[in-house]
Write a structure and sequence with these properties.
45% of the residues lie in helices and 20% in strands. With 303 residues, the chain is an alpha/beta fold. It folds into 3 domains: 84 residues, Winged helix-like DNA-binding domain superfamily/Winged helix DNA-binding domain (Arc Repressor Mutant, subunit A); 107 residues, Periplasmic binding protein-like II (D-Maltodextrin-Binding Protein, domain 2), CATH 3.40.190; 101 residues, Periplasmic binding protein-like II (D-Maltodextrin-Binding Protein, domain 2), CATH 3.40.190.10. Strand 7, helix 8 and strand 8 form a beta-alpha-beta unit. The model has no long low-confidence stretch (mean pLDDT 88).
Length: 303
């Protein structure tokens, strides 16, 4: 036996108001239409919904139960409408973001935290991986947007859209108070004298560091440690006199993580960080809003 859920919703309103006229006014229909609905529903279930001798209308036991189901249907329908509205406005849904480990550690985590605070009904999945892994995931539709340097994408690849977010330099990084970091000019001899922390073979930072040091006259830096873990690299830097090359966004503002950047600039050190998406995939409101929020977070960091 099939029961029209709209009839149950109307029944709930009749039971709540106690009269057909008040129910008709609330629903936006007529009293005769509701009377016909009651007759149709009673004929379908084979039982009376209201006691015929009482005013206001008094529901029978089955009338009470079906009205209860009608209220549940109405609540679910309104909830669904609300969720669709939230999703359309970017306040509901799942956002999947990919980024390299050092970008995830500080900048992305901070931006996502404030984004979630304003949108408690959404869920964000942050995928930390390197270039090849993130590119594979975005083409498999496992990521909505990658936040990463221009080197992540081939500019001639028309399958991808790159939206510039911010420009950030690579810098030499070590513990706060490291004697070399205070020097305004670092010589090849200075850089040859220290021990270095390297990066994963899968990381673009590995070649960035090698290229920068070569341009500064260091062809064979002594690398004592290499890891795919951003936290392991940073912890080692905090507790030794080792140095490494990192983008500025990997450091927390004001040296709150116990790390500092060298005053001396690296050659060809500036890089553009982009929001990378698939060109043929329609962008959701949630993705667009996060990109705008990330830009605002970066601007606030720099003030």
């Amino acid at each position: 036996m099939q029961i029209d859920p709209r009839h149950l919703e109307q029944l709930a309103v009749i039971v709540e108001t106690g009269t057909l006229q008040q129910a008709a006014d609330r629903i936006g229909t007529s009293q005769p239409a509701l009377s016909r609905m009651i007759s149709t529903l009673e004929a379908r279930i084979g039982m009376e919904l209201f006691e015929r001798t009482t005013r206001p209308l008094k529901p029978t036991s089955i009338g009470v139960e079906l009205a209860h189901q009608g209220r549940a249907i109405r609540t679910a329908r309104l909830r669904a409408v609300e969720m669709v509205d939230f999703g359309t406005r970017g306040f509901f849904g799942v956002l999947r973001i990919g980024a390299p480990p050092f970008l995830c550690r500080s900048l992305m985590s901070e931006a996502i935290a404030s984004f979630l605070e304003a949108r408690p009904k959404i869920r964000v999945e942050l995928i930390s991986d390197y270039h090849a892994g993130l590119m594979e995931r975005i083409f498999l539709n496992q990521i909505d947007v990658i936040v990463g340097p221009t080197k992540f994408a081939d500019k001639s690849n028309t399958d991808l859209t790159l939206e510039p977010l911010f420009r950030d330099p690579n810098v030499i990084v070590g513990r706060e108070g490291h004697p070399l970091l205070e020097k305004p000019l670092l010589t090849a001899a200075d850089l040859e004298s220290v021990t270095w922390v390297g990066h994963s073979e899968r990381s673009i930072l590995l070649s960035d560091m090698s290229d920068a040091l070569k341009e500064m006259g260091v062809s064979n830096p002594r690398v004592a440690f290499q890891s795919e873990s951003a936290e392991a690299v940073l912890e080692l830097l905090r507790n030794t006199n080792f140095l490494t090359v990192l983008p500025v966004y990997a450091l927390r503002p004001g040296g709150s993580d116990g790390l500092a950047a060298a005053q001396a600039d690296l050659p060809a050190h500036s890089q553009m960080v982009n929001a990378i998406t698939l060109a043929q995939r329609p962008e959701t409101k949630l993705t667009a809003d996060f990109k705008a929020h990330l830009k605002d977070s970066i601007a606030a960091r720099k003030t």
